[in-house]
Amino acid sequence: MNLDQLLSDAVKSAINALYGGAEAPLQIQKTRKEFEGDYTLVVFPLLKASRKSPEATASEIGEYLVAHTPQISGFNVIKGFLNLSLDSAFWAERFAEIAADERFGQAAPTGRTIMIEYSSPNTNKPLHLGHIRNNLLGYSVARILQANGHNVIKANLVNDRGIHICKSMLAWKLYGGGETPASSGMKGDHLVGKYYVEFDKHYKEQIRELTASGQSEEEAKKNAPIMREAQEMLRRWEAKDPEVYGLWETMNGWVYEGFDVTYKALGVDFDKVYYESQTYLLGKSLVEEGLQKGVFFRKEDGSVWIDLEADGLDQKLLLRGDGTSVYMTQDLGTAFRRFEENRLDEMIYVVGNEQNYHFQVLKLILKKLGYADWSDHIFHLSYGMVELPEGKMKSREGTVVDADDLIAAMIATAREMSDELGKLDGCSEQEAADVAAMVGLGALKYFILKVDPRKTMLFDPRESIDFNGNTGPFIQYTHARIRSILRKAEEAGIDFRSGAESVALLPEEIALVKTLADYPATVRAAGENFAPSIVGAYAYELAKSFNGYYHDHSILREENVAVRDMRIRLAEQVARTIRSAMALLGIEVPERM
RNA sequence: GGUUCCGUAGCUCAGUUGGAUAGAGCAACAGCCUUCUAAGCUGUGGGUCGAGCGUUCGAACCGCUCCGGAAUCACCA
């Protein structure tokens, strides 16, 4: 039985009976905590039909509803707001339905297929905090869309080619002395990142020398021998020179091994991995098509452009004069290929807001080429940068927060906390380590996912990560507490699930059932808005509300057995829903902590 | 300059798509463990929702103008 449906039907028939077929959109919302009631009808929009004051209209409808709808037990009117109360038995029924629903919060299959691309790293350096936000967002949105009944394809497009990789390769060749992950004990991505930094150091040195000998900075940047050599390396790579290609494969292999460790630690994965080295030539045929259709034009030097000035944008390059492709060429190609191969209903790109312009242009070009049905189903899930107290992260200035370091630090802090509180004294080392990993990562993930992706967010390594208050660990802790109760109930041989005897619910219990009943709508809203933060806020509210209840009421110690069993069942459903909601954020919850 | 986005408590952030007296957490202060896990609970203080005008029964939310900030506007990806 659909709750919204029940209410809106009842209200509609009330309005019909009282005022005739008035066609005003109904506004029914949850009653705010500070007022009595469960749901509130806003009557202002109905005043034209009723031709009465807000108060009189609300009272009239309220009386009709109480008389005609058995589940509605009472009402009160404050200004234009009609607060309706549903009776306790109604909520008891809802609760029983939730408990019986094995797929609670999981929507029926929609048959829609959605591809979501996230992560998309460069292979010249390890992942950092910005990538963490990207990965967590992408993974969580994928889970949320699955819960909404969609087929989801998680895709990673690895940027494995280009001048930046050549920089690392060249520096390794020049200064590496044959160092490998095995010989150095370094994680592969970190090793390659080290040589990227090394390149920059020598590059800067050479620029200094050249400017000292009279060149302008611009000339020096172009003429620095190490840069010229890197560019030469890229040309040799494109020509598949065996030596360069072999080194490229070796070093990328190191990086992938490193990334796998980080992805695993973060708990994210992919269904499809695309490599730009295999897709970068796509899109040239689209350029040809655009030229034929007259959407694009060619300049004297042979380069191909589109003029978007009429759309308030600029001219955009699509193909270089020498015929090589640029970012936009590739992206047009991959978009085309993905839609063709997978019959996608939607394509989501989790990419930083620095590329807002790029996606604006991408969609516009697809539309002009006549692929509006694809263009309209591309969504750029744009997220803001993560800033440190000192400001933006800059790889070259060493102010990045490394992903592996951060994860390790989070887990270490969680472990310290557990040890200090003596929470896991009886546990095996393995269990203590698992819990520390769950809690440390839970803190990090929740911290990042609770904020609106669009916003630039601030991360203070010293203060941002808390384990108290509105945090992941708070929610995990609530789960662990409930699991502890359930373990004790089982140890005591309490068969709490069989007691179907209905008992009257306390207001706090009704509040919990109401919150539980909101879960499916929460999942839906999160899916429609691609917004993990909605799920996070929900999990927090549920945990908070349970903690208050737990504090005020005994569960196992309740003397009335029917009431006790109901309370255990209620706690069980709260734990299950917390687990489910947190899973949508990619956060695991422990049995004890 | 063009485009897009952001501005809510000292700090970090919510705010259910236009509803009631704008909410949490942190930090500060004051309480609650011989009782199911105190990573918890309760209380106090803290606001010109950047500013102004407009739309309407009603605006943090919609529109316009301004102020402040971010990103972007490459033959990089």
Task: Give keywords.
593 residues, Gyrase A, domain 2, Rossmann fold, Isoleucyl-tRNA Synthetase, Domain 1, 3 domains, four-stranded antiparallel beta sheet, 14 strands, RNA-binding
CATH superfamily of the largest domain: HUPs
Gyration radius, in Å: 30 Å
Task: Outline the biggest β-sheet.
Answer: 5 strands, parallel
Mean pLDDT over the full residue set: 92
Number of helices: 23
Strand order of the largest sheet: 7-6-5-11-12
Q: In terms of per-residue confidence, which ranges show pLDDT below 50 for 5 or more consecutive residues?
A: none
Oligomeric state of the chains?
A: single chain
The rounded distance between the terminal residues' Cα atoms is 37 Å
Description:
The chain is an alpha/beta fold and 593 residues long. The protein has three domains: 3-86, Arginyl tRNA synthetase N-terminal domain (Gyrase A, domain 2, 2-Layer Sandwich), CATH 3.30.1360.70; 118-387, HUPs (Rossmann fold, 3-Layer(aba) Sandwich), CATH 3.40.50.620; 403-584, Isoleucyl-tRNA Synthetase, Domain 1, CATH 1.10.730. The chain has 23 helices and 14 strands. The protein has helices at residues 3-19, 47-50, 54-68, 88-100, 129-147, 163-175, 181-184, 188-212, 217-223, 225-238, 242-266, 276-279, 284-292, 327-342, 356-368, 372-375, 403-421, 429-449, 472-491, 507-517, 519-529, 532-552, 561-584, and strands at residues 28-30, 39-42, 72-78, 81-86, 113-117, 151-158, 272-275, 297-298, 304-307, 315-319, 346-352, 378-383, 386-387, 457-458. The strands form four sheets. It has a five-stranded parallel β-sheet with strand order 7-6-5-11-12, with helices on both faces. Strand 5, helix 5 (129-147) and strand 6 form a beta-alpha-beta unit. Helix 17 packs across helix 18. The model has no long low-confidence stretch (mean pLDDT 92). The chain binds one RNA strand of 77 nucleotides through strand 10, helix 14, helix 15, helix 17 and strand 14.
